[in-house]
Amino acid sequence: MRKIALAYSGGLDTSVIVPWLKENYDCQVIAVCGNVGQECDWAALEGRAISAGASRLIVADLKKEFVEDYLWPLVKAGSLYEGRYLLGTSAARPIIAKSLTQIALAEGCDAISHGCTGKGNDQVRFELAIKAFAPEMEVIAPWRIWDLQSREDEIAYLEKRNLPVPMKKSDSYSRDDNLWHMSHEGLDLEDPANEPRLATLLKMTVPPADAPDQGQYVKLDFEKGVPVALDGVKMDGVSLILALNKIAGKHGVGILDMVENRVVGMKSRGVYETPAGTVLMEAHAKLEQLCLDRKTLSFKQTVGQKFAELLYEGEWFSPLREAISSFVDSTQGLVTGSVKLKLWKGSISCGGMESPFSLYDASIASFTTGPLFSHKDSEGFINLYGLPTKVRARLNARIAKAGSVALKSGERLPAAGD
Description:
This protein is an alpha/beta fold. It has helices at 12-25, 42-52, 63-77, 88-106, 122-133, 151-160, 198-201, 237-250, 275-291, 294-312, 319-331, 362-365, 377-385, 387-403; strands at residues 2-7, 27-35, 56-61, 111-113, 138-140, 174-177, 182-185, 216-223, 226-230, 233-234, 255-261, 267-273, 337-344, 347-354. α8 packs across α9 and α10 runs antiparallel to α11 (319-331).
């Protein structure tokens, strides 16, 4: 009998895949779940896996590693996919797939299975990670080979076998959640013309209109680009994100409705909730404005965009991503300090920032002239800085002058001093 490790979440897809694998492969199914901070009744999840036909459920606690080795590098890079998406699902997939593969190897499995569809990004992320750690492992992706065509078909499949359906038909959004975010796709969201029904859709945040009328300040402390304290209280990464999720979620911060370009080429629409992540990324960006010089900050923003693309496209375990992270880390040595932000009805505004390594010098930047800056110096700077513009303007004037009188063969443009 074959032994197959299944990336199991307990959602609709994997609830169907357990019995489907047993029916089609005469196999033992080991359900594997990575705990990256998702809301879950773990005892109930194990019960569902066993009742569906899995031999057992293995849960790997990945929260600490997820934060320290995946989320903090994301924050330090300041990466947003297509300028907006905070990469919540993308960041969790490499560590889940890595753990899944390690467990499959330890258990002597012949194959690994996952519930990703042929249209989605996650199939790429999972399988690239599997190849990185078990390049010869067989991968079984039921959505690419079975006859089921929709989530409705999956529900009917479970009902026909008297197996529990893990959701209501009216609320069968495709959702993914972890410490960093929750995503929502499907149903009415598949039509971009529809406004999201936030009051019933959201799980981590409240609609901004329903948030408290009184805003709230939060203070975040960073050391070398890493968040270390919330409101003056030192915390480990997991605790800090959990605490900040509650505060930011209460104020409706971190809701994103986006049409994005998937890896496989199509556009998809999703609603994302990333309360703590939105605040942390904003705070980190503010601190970098103080601590990084202009050219380093500019180049880092370019690099951060590439980092986002690599993470989104499943190339976390690639030499280029590792090299980019090394560059990012080299910029973070002095990104230390505090940032205060005000959260109010879905918005974030700056309440002040400070750092012992700030490059902001009031004696230079102030409108009041200080001893370190002379306004007279600007004349020479502008003359040199504007020299290419001046040369171009003089050339244009000579061309215009020559154009008013037809040049004979062999004649030249008037010289600059003519």
